[in-house]
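Posting this for the archive.
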Amino acid sequence: MGDLNGRTMVMSGGSRGIGLETALAFARRGGNVALLAKTDQPHPQLPGTIHTAVDATREAGGNAIGVLGDVRSEEDVARLVKTAVTEFGGIDIVVNNASAIHTAGTLDTPTKKFALMHEVNIRGTWLLTSAALPRLRESRGSIMTLSPPLNLAPHWLGIHPAYTTSKYGMTLLTLGWAAEFAADGISSYCLWPETLIDTAAVRNVVGGADQARSPQIMADAAMAVLDLLPEHKNGRAFIDADVLRASRLTDLSQYGGDAPAKDIVVD
């Protein structure tokens, strides 16, 4: 992996979990990071704020700025993009990381939860990417969305339809941009974990953190995909473990939780 000096990542979320680990990995290679997050004060169940994330990213070796805001707000997203361009001169990669999760069936999903997931996951992905696209055209940059490959198997469709459709919506947008902007040199792709990832959301909503892998596996996979040529990633939906295995990292035990590998929960 080469250095990323002068290259800028704009990310939704990033106060904790996969987003923070990805920001740190980008910073360790010398990149600039601009984060949009709404956690201003510490929360007992959600460690980390936008301020601690910016501090950690700077300590990792990169330049970092944080914009306090909500990815559902057009004004907040525009402010993030403007701040990134003012501070760093452009945008090279957009990471659609922010996501709302409620893994319940239809009768156990209030309309308010349904609306939140679709507003954060689909609307937020649309707002951030569309706001950054003019700059991505200039840099011939990348769009990376943390969403799954499209899988119409009844198990995944039926287990939590509201959440599933919100995540598939993110994927469809990303694959659509891959086709729409390929001629502009923009590569657009998705990245998703093979297993549960040990994040605050998983601990609070799903449980089973001992059967999950570390967020570092997603960060390492994100950096590996970033290094691929555009024609090798545009329009694809990657799985983190597959990416690392293709990079000749066959032993993934360093990312495992307390459970044996056979007990890690497939996502």
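The chain has a mean pLDDT of 93. The radius of gyration is 17 Å.
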